[in-house]
Amino acid sequence: SLTDSPVILKILQNWVPRVSHYFDKEHYTYVGHQIVIQESIEHFGAVVWPGALALSQYLESNQEQFNLKDKKVLEIGAGTGLVSIVACILGAYVTATDLPEVLENLSYNISRNTQNMNMHKPEVRKLVWGEGLNEDFPVSTYHYDFILATDVVYHHTALDSLLATMAYFCKPGTVLLWANKFRFSTDYEFLEKLCNMFNVTVLAEFPESNVKLLKATVREN
């Protein structure tokens, strides 16, 4: 049902850029909270990409449609943690995951922005796409209402592992929300594979940023 007309949106400039060569602290405001994100230029995962801004903005604006309160939310490729922090502010039980080398900065941002709030304490865990899923996240114990992913598709070799990871966590009743900047043919090829596996809808497009926000659910047999 990619034919349904998505909402056309613009990513709002709701942050104050700061200048620094190594660690940048970006200040954002979502759901009435100021969020300070430390970025590192050393890792792809330690920079806030446009998909994260798009999904954060969308979750804030569509709380009736996607009510995260007391829901179990898993973010894969959480990066700087912005989306996980927003989900946490919206009342979710959040597990933010990424590669081991990104976890220190991710944990720092998440604890710094959620420590004094009256909300479920988020968890930060290692997740290498396609590796050790059964051991680290056994199906019998872990069921998520929402899987969040932003800008996880770009030029890298783990796209099949990413797809397998999405398929592993997307159970009947789970909603996958994926926001991505579409730049390359590989991005569209990944979308095509996703459409072959799931029911996929384009919820919103941010044309100025080339970002699409998609919703995917498991096909019920």
TrEMBL record:
GO BP: any one term: methylation
InterPro entries associated with the record: Methyltransf_16, SAM-dependent_MTases_sf
Superkingdom of the organism of origin: Eukaryota
GO MF, one example: methyltransferase activity
Keywords: Methyltransferase, S-adenosyl-L-methionine, Transferase
Transmembrane regions: none
Regions annotated as coiled coil: none
Protein name, UniProt field: MT21C methyltransferase
Lineage: Eukaryota, Metazoa, Chordata, Craniata, Vertebrata
Gene: Mettl21c
